[in-house]
Amino acid sequence: MSGSYWDEFVDYEVNNDLNIRGFVEGLAEKVDKAFSELDDDYHPAYLGVENAVRLYALIREKKPSTVIETGVCNGMSSAAILKALKDNKKGKLYSVDLPVVAGSIEGRIGAVLPPGKSSGWVVSDELKERWELLLGNTYYVLPKIFAKVDQTDVFIHDSGHSYETMMFEFGIAWYHLRDGGVLLADNTDKNEAFKDFARGKERKLFRLNKMALIEK
Ligand SMILES: C[S@@+](CC[C@H](N)C(=O)[O-])C[C@H]1O[C@@H](n2cnc3c(N)ncnc32)[C@H](O)[C@@H]1O
Question: What pLDDT score was predicted for residue 37?
Answer without folding.
Answer: 95
